[in-house]
Structures are given as C-alpha cells and as structure tokens.
Design a protein that fits this description.
The structure is a single chain. The protein has 173 residues and is α/β, with parallel strands linked by helices. It is globular, with a radius of gyration of 16 Å. It has a seven-stranded parallel sheet, with helices on both faces. It is built from five helices and seven strands; from the N terminus they run E-H-E-H-E-H-E-E-E-H-E-H. Helix content is 29%, strand content 20%. The N terminus is likely disordered. It starts with 20 loop residues before the first strand and ends with a helix. It has a single domain, classed as Alpha/beta knot.
Length: 173
C-alpha cells in the first residue's frame, strides 16, 4: 500500500487536541510571507501556543504564506494586530515575559538563557530587526552565536534555532 504524503491536510476538527508548549511568538513587521509560512510550519512542529502577527507581517489568507506553511496556519493558533505594542500589551496583561531575538551589543547567547515558562519571543524585520521601541519593552535580548562575517540569519531559520533550544531546555520532546 502506498504511503500518503505526510503533509496531507487534515481538518483541525478531525484531530485530537495536543498539549501546547507555553511559547508565544511575536513577529514584528516581517517582510516575507514565505518566511512567515515557514515559521508557521516550525511552530506547528514545536507545538507553539500562539503566533502574534504584527504590523506589515503577512497573515492568512495569503497565497505566499500558504505555499510554505503547507496548512500549518490551520493548526497553530494565531492573531493579527496592526501594532506590535498591542501584542506586547496583551502578553504583559497575561503575565508572559517577552524576550527579543536580536543581534545587539547587550544580547546574550540563546544557549545561556534559562528560558522561563511561559515565554514570548519577538522576531523582527529581516532588514531592520526588532524596532528599538519593542526592544525596550523586552525583559532580555538574545542572540544566536555566529562565527562568520555576517551577524544575521534568515528569520525563519533563527526562529527554528531559538525555539528548539527553548524546547530542549524544557525537555519538551
């Protein structure tokens, strides 16, 4: 019997509920819908609690996003907000600390952070990064150590690296 593709769409109503890891992801003005779709897929793999899509960040329905998400937008809870500050206000009111993933002078390695549960992690624009106003509202700024000349990674790649370190520390898998 041939195997069905593992990415075959299954309606969320046909699936049993899964325990979600208490990770909230805040996307601060991400330019590429393809990156957003990739983040949705990785967020589904990591059973992320919620994605907060903010500002110019693409949100469903969007054909480019759907192309890389492969249906994950139906499985990962998400909210769109016009301003990133609105997402941070909601997280503050829920008592969820926010960390930013950004290569700044005061950022610490994501490998040395003791990640609290729950936590929100902000990822920023591919060119300009997390805006200074948003950085100032975050409890901590983390970076991914790099050995090359460039100090940036693709935002979807950076998200996967940071998420899986958080989940490793929490022994989620």
């Amino acid at each position: 019997m041939p195997l069905e593709p593992h990415y075959r769409m299954v309606l969320p109503t046909d699936l049993p509920p899964i325990p979600r890891n208490p990770v909230h992801i805040v996307l601060d003005n991400i330019r590429s819908a393809f990156n957003v779709g990739s983040i949705f897929r990785t967020a589904d793999a990591g059973a992320v609690a919620h994605i907060h899509l903010c500002g110019m960040t693409a949100y469903p329905p969007n054909l480019k996003l759907a192309k890389t998400a492969l249906g994950a937008t139906d499985y990962v809870p998400w909210t769109y907000r016009r301003r990133t500050e609105e997402a941070l206000d909601w997280l503050d009111s829920a008592g969820i600390p926010c960390y930013a993933a950004e290569a700044t002078g005061n950022a610490v390695s994501h490998l040395t952070v003791e990640w609290p549960q729950p936590v929100a992690i902000v990822f920023g624009n591919e060119v300009t990064g997390v805006s200074p106003d948003i950085l100032s509202r975050c409890a901590k700024t983390v970076r991914i150590p790099m050995g090359g000349y460039k100090n940036t990674l693709n935002v979807a790649t950076a998200f996967g690296i940071v998420l899986y370190e958080v989940l490793r520390q929490w022994k989620s898998f």
